[in-house]
Amino acid sequence: MISEDALGQPPVIARLEDFDRQSGSRLERLLFNNRIAVVALCLIASLFLGWQATHLRLNASFEKMIPTGHPYIASYLAHKSELGGLGNSVRIAVEAADGTIFDKRYMETLRAISDTVFLLPGVDRPFLKSLWTPATRWTAVTEQGIDGGTVIPDGFDGSPASLEALRANVGRSGEIGQLVAANFRSSVIFVPLLDVEPETGKPFDYRKFSQSLDALKAKYEPMGVKLHVTGFARIVGDLIAGLEQVLLFFVAAVAIAFLVVLAYTRCVRSTLLVMCCSLVAVMWQLGLLSLLGYELDPYSVLVPFLVFAIGMSHGAQKMNGIMQDIGRGTHRVVAARYTFRRLFVAGLTALLCDAVGFAVLIIIDIKVIQDLAMIASIGVGVLIFTNLILLPILLSYVGVSASAASRSLREEADMREDGQESGTKHWAWRFLDLFTQRRYAAIAIAVAALLAAGGYRVSLDLKVGDLDPGAPELQPDSAYNRDSAFMVANYAASSDILVVMVKTPNDQCTAYRTLSRVDELAWRLRQLPGVEATNSMATLAKLAGVGFNEGNFKWFELIPNEGALGVAQTIAPRESFNKMCSLLTLYVYLQDHKADTLARVVAAVEEYGARNTDPNVRFLLAAGNAGIEAATNIVVGKAMHEMLVWVYGAVIILCFVTFRSWRAVATAVIPLVLTSILCEALMVVLGMGVKVATLPVIALGVGIGVDYALYVLSIVLSHLRAGESLSVAYYRSLLFTGRVVMLTGLTLAVAVATWYWSPIKFQADMGILLAFMFLWNMLGALVLLPALACFLLPRARPVADAADAGAKKVLV
Questions:
Q1: How far apart are CA 185 and CA 241, in angstroms?
Q2: Is the pTM of this model over 0.85?
Q3: Which of 17, 59, 328, 704 registers the highest number of CB atoms within 10 A of its CB?
């Protein structure tokens, strides 16, 4: 037990010999009485985990991006082997630089590209489709009946006659608008992909595949064509390729944080130490991820920066406390132990809240988010060792410069021994102190209530899913989104496809009762805004009826004749039904994959399926990229509020365990609630939807934001319990932890705001949201927290005199 002086500070001990090494908690004695052993163990861990970090891989997985437990995805995965190409795929549009596709040179180049793509690792070869594949066929009605064949004529040699035959076959194939552009200036190679490369048994390598596509462009574009590539694999490839620039933003953020903290402390060695400990935490995190078999993906690659940011925030608090004690004349080892005593519990609680904020993301049934939760939780757990334990011990060796230490106490000198101001308080502290008075506190709470009400009203318009066409993960002017715009402009069949699976008994996929219901559902879907077209076995059966009746479109109907309908199987592509004729597909081509479009289509299918499903015909959602995204949107939308309940529940419990007061918990948590509401409103204003990339930020803002409140409130409560007024307690909190809260809040907000210029749009979005949350959580801790404390926390009880007050203050 060490008694504090009248200013609430522990006694100044200038010589280490005068300090009782057996004082403090058992944990403190274990750590600080064995400093060399602790540093040695951390050095060994750093060397080992640093080596492990060099083996960490960066990759992505299609199945990790989808909610595999959702009924839609479960249905898709159950029939995945029968639905080749309806999941992860890319489309390569080969555009003729001059003329049309009916050119010998173009067709030879297309064949070379198609053959090259066919042999790429991870391609689902039986389902690859282009003008040169045998599965691309034409069908026509002739005098002899229905005739057909491959689109590429037998003996094609590029001569004018064979090119004319090719033109005729393309016109009869039904592929105009799908594999062939309506202006005949380009054609598509459809490339379905596997999750595991059969040759190696390893997961599909998106970086390698994207590099192969780049090599295709480099090789064949000089031959008079231009390649446009869309699909999940290409998006991931572009994201991975853009990570080099992401690393530059990481370096810039580290530099900004270092320079701002240095400008505050004017002490190079302690600032370097804080930064290095935060980077060591990142290195430990990456090493542990490699050791545990995790991989970084484009969505979790930003987590190490968040770990660094949290580490800088906590490290600056420890450095500031030690700096102030050294400025009073305390030996650096004793100062480190004092700071450890005062801030360890608050720091531990804050980090546990951070960890919980990350960990609750595990409840979301999307593997990439679950991995992000584990990666972030591991990083925050590491910070407990590097920034709460290792940093104070290292600072006990290094200390801080004398000038920096004396500068840190300049404002505290303006407080008299009785705890009152001497009149020279900094203008910022005078302004913030106003919110400890009931009048200004009431104004602050009223403004916060108005902001909460207005923000909540705006947040009701928050959408789940993508709100923009193309790939919202990338900037609108990115190469991918230009390619996507090319596809939309030149192909009637959208690349956004939702596939309804229709399950029947064996050999019943062309039964009249099946096809009539599929045809009715297709008609209903075509009436919806956002649906461009549909295609199914029912449509093919109608076309077969026309073909058998001399091309007369009066026969474009479903005839209740099982034999006649069964002929559709002879002209249907293999993705339309399975071998047992127990599963057929209804393709729904959408204008886009925006949240509202998907929601309308899904609702219509579910409503129709509920009324028309029986043991012989069952409508199952969903395959196709749009179907998978619809399931993802449903899971994200459901998890959003459930996640916040868990986050806030865990934060409230941890705060209550720390403060043992519901009033203190409310004081700390209410500013976080305001920030969450305003963050959702900001997403609406900026046109952001809640999706895989943005959902984690909402939870992270709660966990990270509570750090500020805990550091400020822990000091305020300790002085209030000692009998001081709220004004004095808050002022001392500002001098000890509050100004560092302001420093780190502004620093980290500026650092992540630089992400706005990232080529990766979801990183830019995360930067905007995190900067907003850093700033508002800081303002909440410095403005709304004292205002709430004015009404919620108990009033200080007067004490007899300063000596009596000093006797009542105890630091354990």
A1: 30
A2: no
A3: 704
